[in-house]
Amino acid sequence: MNARPMSATPRVRPILWAAALLATLAVPAAAQSVKEARAALEQGRLDEAMQLFERAAQDGSAEGRAGVGQVWLRRRQLARAQEAFETAQKMDPMLAAAYWGQGEVLKRQGRCAEAIPLLQKANELDRKYPDAAMSLGRCLIELKRIDEAIPVLTQGTRWGPKWRPKFLVALGDAELARDSLRSASVFYTQAREEAPGDPVARRALGDFYLKARGIGELAVPEYEAAVAIDSTDVELRFALAQGLFYAQRYNAALEQYRWVVERDPEFAPGLLGLGNLYFLSGPADPRRYADAVAPLEAYVRLEPQDGRGWSLLGRTYFYLQRRDEAVKALEKAESLGAGNKEMFTILGRLYAAQKEWSKSLAAFARGEPTTRDQLTMAQVYVFEKQPERADSIYRAVVAIDSTTADARFALYQLGLMRFRALDYAGAASTFRRVIGLDPKHPDAYYYLGLSYKELKQAPEALDALRQAAAITPDKADRHFWLGVMFAQSDSVEAARAALARSVELDSTSKVQGVAFRQLGFYDLVARRYAEAIRHLERAVQLDEKDVQAWVWLGQGQQNTGNRGRALEAYRRALALDPRQADALKGIQALEGSASR
């Protein structure tokens, strides 16, 4: 009965022994991977560090998983870093690095009040943990708890030459937070003097010159010295790029931004800086807008909740004429609370192009519209049935300088508004001003002629319409109204020529039915009945409710002996106007002749 258990035992024990041996061997292997990964991280070899930390984590090392979080921190991928540090804490609840990492993520997200308990826990678990002490001190500074921060940071100055300059820098930051520039400068300078080979000290002094005093020229040498000490650090290179940018050394800044992005394509601040510099170069060289797209698109993929990136990308799309994409990006930026006057001005233009009138006006109100934008706003007010506001803008533009192209446009629009409001005298006066500024303005001549027509000033109307037709001979409406005025003046040949040119340019518009009707009438009077019928048939095709055209068509058919078609035309006229005398007379004559 005991044979089964006894025979099974020799097989189970080797398996358990092997598993234990593998677990034992995995520990030093994981530790070695962590050690190598930290060295790679220190030297900026992030891909290699990630692989080594990941290998250690897969071997069960909580330090390896926390190391993965550190790499994500270096790449500013905070969500991924947070996930890694939380996992590390679950793997080893006593691992100080797991608490520090979570606190550091919160710190970088601007959530220092939430970060402090985690950072305090990290410091409790490891009383000599420089990163944790530094993060705690900086969070206390951020919350203006300077008196609490100083002892935390001061202890770090006693942790040897590697860490002392870094904590001196942090103490300088604490003094800076309470506006003690002199004390801050003392700490920064002391850090540099004690550790001239430490890039952190050189960068801190550069940051002080750039951010506290706004002197890019003084910051750049410090950043350059830091990069010379550690040329592989992406963040140092980025700081140098920023310093060069603010020192207005744009070509040198561009070179550094490119280096940063090439070295670490997922370093979001570098992508934003590069895209921003390309964007700002766009007015001088429009090709730079196209260069800006790739880094900015990459940035919003990495930082989708940063409205600055969406704003820059949307404005870039706008200048590349990618309007639909621009609207989406800028609306995203606005939803995230981002935006500047340029962004809202561009949104106003885009909404106007989409005929989103109310949105356009709202966006312009938050922007800084140019004179040209104000003209767009005035047109929008017209569409929105607010002519008084449009009038106010147009007058303001003209008042600034009536000789500019924008002022001429505003004057012309004022003339149109008066014309549409049936103020023909005011319209004529305004159009004359436009012509005084631009003697070749065809539209001003055209509407001036129509205004004179309504004012019953035929000679002036004819003169203005002649000018309009001469300046733009390929516009049918100019010839049409010129022909109408000639017809009213009984200038038959001139009217015929103008109307013929009108229908030659446009034979399909309903208004051209009038031109065909008048041409048919001239042919009818001249007894060119075939031509008359052709013109009049076209007239009723374009406007089947034209009573007079049906009557004249009936007369043309009657004069050619086509009794059936004549009766049909007269009856169509009477259907529209039962009391039309010429149609009644025509039918009576045709029916009387038939009875005889």
Automatic annotation (TrEMBL):
Keyword vocabulary terms for this entry: Repeat, Signal, TPR repeat
Keyword Nucleotide-binding part of the UniProt annotation: no
Domain of life: Bacteria
Pfam families named in the record: TPR_16, TPR_19, TPR_2
PROSITE patterns: TPR (PS50005)
InterPro entries: CellSynth/LPSAsmb/PSIAsmb, TPR-like_helical_dom_sf, TPR_2, TPR_rpt
TPR repeats: 62-95, 307-340, 408-441, 442-475, 513-546, 547-580
Classification via PANTHER family: LIPOPOLYSACCHARIDE ASSEMBLY PROTEIN B, TPR REPEAT-CONTAINING PROTEIN PA4667
Protein name: Tetratricopeptide repeat protein
Annotated organism of origin: Eiseniibacteriota bacterium
